[in-house]
Amino acid sequence: MSVAPEPSATAYAPTARTVPTRSKERAGYDRALVHSILDGAYVCHLGFVRDGAPVVLPTLYGRVGERVYVHGSTGSRPLRMAGQQDPGLPVCLTVTHVDALVLARSAFHHSINYRSVVIHGIAHQVTDLDEKRLALDALVDHVVPGRAADSRPANAKELAATAVLSLDLAEVSAKLRTGGPNDEPEDLDLPHWTGLVPLRQSHGPLVPADDLADGIDVPAYLRDL
Amino acid sequence: MSVAPEPSATAYAPTARTVPTRSKERAGYDRALVHSILDGAYVCHLGFVRDGAPVVLPTLYGRVGERVYVHGSTGSRPLRMAGQQDPGLPVCLTVTHVDALVLARSAFHHSINYRSVVIHGIAHQVTDLDEKRLALDALVDHVVPGRAADSRPANAKELAATAVLSLDLAEVSAKLRTGGPNDEPEDLDLPHWTGLVPLRQSHGPLVPADDLADGIDVPAYLRDL
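ok -> structure tokens follow
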């Protein structure tokens, strides 16, 4: 079983690809910050190159230490490509939270407050069965923490039909904007309302499946969401 | 001024890139569906190829008819690349909504309900000033409809500092999953709770800027959000 790399410091080392050309003050490399952004979203956007052109697909993911996993059918394009290419598939995996709309007096200074993580690297197909099971548990627990232990694990047929890609957290950066609008001094007297529109994601009331048997209570990990 | 293409039918024509290899029943090409998914999200994920590797960045966007626009500093990488490359920059622009977590009895059938749009194409730098102004209005109105008319438009200096890319809606598909979990018949008696956890995005209370002058009321287009 391949083992995810141990963190050697509290921050990722910046590289040419992870230092932005502008708004450098918005970039961050702290591991705890990167982990918190990754752990708080449901989907990532996975980019890869196919026939010379970019492809960006939304997909579920999970994190185990310094490694993220995505999965899919063994027949899906990026998963097949990663298994066929040596040493793997160059990818860019991006996760974004939109926290607020930033309404400035000038159109130019309109913006959003956001937190994002961009991971560059080579995705490898996971062939070790133990790591594959660990990754699939992480994917389910990423959706709802505690859920993997309260569901039937994949059987041999399902494991064989599922491909898993791993991507190490090595070339990684966070980027975020916080705070209010930044208008030009000469615009401060303009008569436009200015400020933030915060955005919130919440869980609606649970919708039990039509065929849920009587007597199965909502588990604690769902009540606590 | 370049004019966005007129729609020739109520649906986009599928291409080799927009027909999925699996779950074909989840794919859609209806223009109204694609437009509604595009119009309801705040950020897209823009993919392009740099030095042979994929890059995926979150960014704001706006739609005018059958064309989407993104913008950025004239110094930012994809915007610079689109201006330097002939005939433009190959991109993939993806927008995703996560509507619900799907908790099946088996780990294998866990999923999410989502709506996404993937646009493949060549992004061009907008050089016509009228189209640039139209695009910037669309970007601001995409964040909050009605806002462009209630903010100071970009001046000549700001227009010169901003690059805008256009991407026609030609090679486009939507993909969506709806409905409850799909467990295997042999799993129906397992004792795990099963159903949907709906997700909702809402607006929190407005946060006026620290320097907002007295007497400027919250405009109607913000009260109605």
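The mean pLDDT of chain A is 94.
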